[in-house]
Design goal:
CATH architecture of the largest domain: Orthogonal Bundle
Largest sheet: 2 strands, antiparallel
Number of strands: 2
Number of domains: 2
Shape: elongated
Oligomer: single chain
């Protein structure tokens, strides 16, 4: 399949396909003139990439989910660790939902007077500080994000 057909069938923009190829996530078979050609199995690879991204894996983490030939080779421990991370995130989000619902219906005269809302603020502040401490310093230069895929 040429790159235009892969883009049409997968919903992934041709620019993203070229980016994924540069990152080593997919591989073209050959170039026919100026158009890249891909094996039909690239559609399965793109589906795995989309699933990995939806689960929160980085493109570098997704790249190691493939053998050099493009077959899936997924580390079960990595999946388990990501599931644990998502579970922690769901718990935090559930607590946030409950706090917001309480704040929306709280009988206190102001949110500043609501102990539940104050706990929510403190938890949010602690989480924000924790994230800032873990986040690497911002990079300058070109973005490492893939081009947006067209839908």
């Amino acid at each position: 399949m040429d790159i235009a057909e892969v883009a049409r069938k997968s919903g992934v923009a041709a620019s993203a396909l070229r980016y994924y190829e540069r990152k080593g996530l997919i591989r073209s078979l050959a170039s026919e003139g100026a158009r890249r050609k891909f094996a039909p199995s690239v559609l399965d690879q793109l589906a795995l990439i989309a699933l990995g991204q939806a689960a929160g894996f980085s493109l570098d983490e997704i790249r190691v989910m493939f053998t050099p030939g493009g077959a899936p080779n997924i580390d079960r421990a990595m999946l388990s660790a990501k599931a644990d991370e998502l579970e922690r995130m769901v718990k935090r989000l559930r607590a946030m939902i409950e706090g917001l619902r309480h704040a929306a219906a709280c009988p206190a005269t102001s949110h500043a007077a609501c102990p539940s809302f104050q706990r929510l603020l403190k938890a949010a502040a602690a989480g924000a500080l924790e994230k800032r401490q873990r986040r690497p310093a911002p990079r300058t230069g070109a973005s490492s994000r893939p081009p947006r895929s067209g839908a």
